[in-house]
Write a structure and sequence with these properties.
Three copies of one chain form a homotrimer.
Chain A (H helix, E strand, L loop, with lengths): L1 H17 L14 H15 L14 H27 L5 H13 L1 H18 L6 H7 L1 H17 L5 H13 L2 E2 L4 E2 L4 E3 L5 E2 L4 E2 L4 E3 L3 E3 L17 E2 L4 E2 L4 E3 L4 E2 L4 E2 L4 E2 L7 E5 L4 E5 L14
Parallel strand pairs in A: 1-4, 2-5, 3-6, 4-7, 5-8, 6-9, 7-10, 8-11, 9-12, 10-13, 12-14
Chain lengths: ~300, ~300, ~300
């Protein structure tokens, strides 16, 4: 068996040489997914003190606990920021990573303020929530939005890759895929959440409510990489509600303020403010399985 | 750096004072997500003995193993139940948590009996399943349904928050979001599963089959919290099949027995028994990309 | 309390006797989900060297690291293969598991070659990707496709259950459910990914792009288990793009080469090559909420 395994090792090593595009050998140190996962967990504890802890926090201990948490996040995040900056700019000095880190940490109170409006929006919008504690403890969307709001700060500060790894960590846990580039207003609520996609250049106003499976995506054009940086994803204005499974596509598509979009709709152009959008009810065929003579178009309908 | 970090700590501590709604400081002990995750794993071992173990179980050891598992679950779950009861009723005595715990454990054989019908329904409904072992080992829906059926018992017994944390644990692992309040009949099967949402007041009959992305949701009304406790989610009668991505909405919406609903439909009113429901085929536009003169409405179609 | 718990243990033990179908007691050793999860993680390190490591790999160390990884995977995977073969054929000799293992390992360079084309397709198709490193580090679809391409080799070699446990491991992490039986051509890209379902007998050509929530499923027929082995899932020809939430159903349904299918469509019959498919735009109702006199069909529209 050992001889066979060494033959296999040789053939895999040859494949590392011939298919180089998916190796990372002799390269710079990459940001660590594992380190960033642990930083994301610590960020949630810092943003929602007492909710993600095993024991309740007493207020007399809060300064010490918070100072410890800030230091622990700072030490590890500075290293990940430094690694990612050096991927783009090899000689990038440690001090630059440190400056970005402080700019990020200074904006956390602002992130917390936005999250307070999100929790309130979820409580007002969902009769299944008994209180805001239940939302912070159990609603997956809040975790996804908290990580996105934090990652968005890093994205704004020009940090490559790290913000995306953070939102993909939340995506894996919640099924909610919000690109760190998306701009999201106050009082944002996603009910249920699984399958929601919010693309990089999306702009979302205040008091917007999305259901699971709603997608704000770009057209898939031949342009590909030529479109990098161009606004490719929709704008959703204030007080819009979009029901489950609806896709809104394109960078110049605007859903006007106060509109409601039904489920499973494909929207590819702008919708005026205060609109209702749904497929005409009469297009929905409701046939009686037991009535003879009607056209049964397929055997799945039996 | 230390001086800067201590400034940042101060600004975060000030934010804890000004945005109090998302802190949990000096409060009662909250149920622990980590403890409940481990209890859920142990419950799956107890419900499906031998399937979630590293080694096969011999029948001579089964009484000892089962006794150990029951005790281990009881010790930790009693504590989580007590913490959650005290959030609502601060002086709630330990004996009340213990009584709820026993009521829960006594109903586990009934949960197992329902799960046996679910496994059989999955096997009969899915030609990709080679045997029921494969379903219990690999089908995510079964894990989501097992945890929901157990959490539903706790919900029925009036335990706050804990049942929801349990179903959200399963949601995170499977993408299937079934509220612990939902009433689900025997022989239930969800194929593939990701993105399924079943709201708190849904009622599901026997032999129902759902595909991934099916949503049983409430209308999003201005009422908000005023609607708590009201039936807001649909009723699905016996032997209904609903294909992927379809949304059924509203508390008085009933899908009649024996009906089949196609994929990506938005159903907002009741459907009679034995119906077929789908969008009229002729509404589907099928254009030839290479034929000139037809209206191309958007450049994504090129 | 101890007396009550022993009563509960007894009633659960009785339930193990009366509901035997969901126990695995005195049976053969089952494949271990935990062991296969760890094997999948190691496979990703072997397929994409340097990307899933904490430290960068130096080329001088690559032969030693690779040899170690191959050996570590081989030792554990042989055992899981042996256990699964013995479920079907109790006396199956260790040498058969070993032969299957070598056949699998020998095909890994071929898997890597396909993955190189997938990464390139993702980079060309997504302007949000800054470089291929970001795709390999952060895009969940690549993990799902890598595990499916490896599991497909084991499926082809006739190994039961193990390939499905592997793809369900990826499903749990990514929300992407690709059956190990599906045949997938070069340069495959799934954008965002959550909720994608690709059934066992699907056949996918080259340069196909799917968005999240796209489902290639079988009709749900009374036949059930009688259909095992029959082609039940669609064929998607080369250069097809399918937008989010669309379901394509049935084993004789073929989406012709170069076609584009819009979002939230339910396709139950074949589509010719070079087609555009979407629901007619004029069926989409766009009403003004503030205009009196129009029929408001439901109060969710207010």
């Amino acid at each position: 068996m050992d001889k066979d395994l060494s033959k296999i090792t040789d053939s895999i090593l040859r494949s590392y040489e011939s298919c180089g595009g998916i190796n990372h050998v002799d390269g710079a140190n990459l940001p660590s997914k594992r380190a960033l996962a642990s930083i994301c967990e610590d960020l949630l504890q810092l943003l929602f003190p007492g909710f993600h802890d095993q024991e309740p926090i007493r207020s007399v201990h809060l300064p010490r606990v918070t100072s410890y948490r800030v230091t622990a996040i700072a030490d590890r995040l500075r290293e990940e920021i430094a690694k990612s900056l050096r991927l783009r700019e090899p000689g990038c000095p440690e001090t630059k990573a440190e400056r970005v880190l402080f700019d990020f940490l200074e904006r956390l109170p602002e992130v917390r303020e936005l999250l307070t409006t999100d929790v309130q929006a979820a409580f007002e919008g969902d009769p299944a929530a008994n209180n805001t504690d239940e939302i912070i403890l159990a609603y997956p969307y809040l975790e996804a939005v908290a990580i996105q709001r934090a990652a968005h700060v890093l994205y704004d500060l020009g940090v490559p890759i790290v913000p995306r790894i953070m939102t993909e960590w939340a995506h894996s846990r919640t099924g909610i895929d919000i690109h760190p580039g998306a701009k999201i207003g106050r009082s944002f609520f996603i009910d249920h959440g699984t399958g929601v996609v919010i693309g990089e250049t999306s702009v979302i106003g205040e008091r917007v409510k999305l259901y699971q499976g709603v997608a704000l995506i770009a057209r898939s054009l031949a342009g590909g990489q030529a479109l990098r940086g161009v606004k490719r994803h929709p704008t959703i204005e204030d007080r819009v509600t979009i029901y489950s499974g609806t896709t809104v596509m394109g960078g110049d598509t605007v859903i006007g303020a106060g509109s409601t979009i039904g489920a499973s709709v494909f929207v590819t152009r702008s919708i005026p403010a205060r609109s209702l959008v749904f497929y005409e009810e009469k297009q929905l065929q409701i046939l009686d399985k037991d009535k003879r003579g009607q056209v049964v178009v397929d055997d799945w309908m039996i």
